[in-house]
Amino acid sequence: MIGFEGRMFVEAVIAGAVAMFLVGSLVGLEYSYRMYPEIFRERRVDPISLLLAVLGWTLLAVSWMRSVPVGIWIAAFLIGYVVNMRPGYGRIETVLGIATFLAALTWLEGLGPR
Questions:
Q1: Is 69 in contact with 20 (CB distance < 8 Å)?
Q2: What are φ and ψ of residue 84, in 5° steps?
Q3: Which of 94, 101, 14 has the alpha carbon at shortest distance from 65?
Q4: Pairing with 30, which of 21, 39, 53, 101 sits 20 to 30 Å away (CA)?
Q5: How close are the terminal C-alpha atoms of the chain, in Å?
Q6: pLDDT value at position 4?
Q7: What is the pLDDT of residue 71?
Q8: How many domains is the chain built from?
C-alpha cells in the first residue's frame, strides 16, 4: 500500500501530465491551423509531427519504466501536441508513435531482471 507521501507524489505526476497534455494540445492545434489552412490534406506524413509523436511516445515508455516524472510531463506535452491537431491531421503520426511506444515497452521489459 502506498503511504501518504507516495500518493501525493503520484497525484502530482498525474496532475502535471494532464496539464502538460492540455498545453501541448493547444499548441498542436494552433500549429496545425497555421500550417494547414485547407480543410483536409492529402495522405502525407508531417515530418515534424511524426518526430514529436515518436519522441513523445518513446519518452513516455522510458520515463514510465524508470519512474521519471519530468520525462512523463514532457512526453505528455509532445503526445498532446500531435493528438489534438486539427481534425484529419496527426492520425498517422499518432499511430506510428503508439507502435513505437509498444515496441519500446517490449524492449525495455526484455532488459529487466530475469
A1: no
A2: -100, 35
A3: 101
A4: 101
A5: 25
A6: 64
A7: 93
A8: 1
Neighbours of 85 (CB within 10 A): 24
The overall average pLDDT reported for the chain is 85
pLDDT tens across 45-100, in order? 888 888 999 999 999 988 888 888 899 999 999 999 998 887 777 888 888 889 98
Is residue 92 classed exposed, middle or buried when 0-12, 13-18 and 19+ CB atoms within 10 A define those classes?
Answer: middle
- The 3-class secondary structure across the chain, one letter per residue, is CCCHHHHHHHHHHHHHHHHHHHHHHHHHHHHHHHHCCCCCCCCCCCHHHHHHHHHHHHHHHHHHHHCCHHHHHHHHHHHHHHHCCCCCCCHHHHHHHHHHHHHHHHHHHHCCCC
Contact 82, 100 (CB under 8 A): no
State the residue range of the domain holding 33: 4-110
pLDDT band at 9 (very low <50, low <70, confident <90, very high): confident
For the entire predicted model, the pTM comes to: 0.83
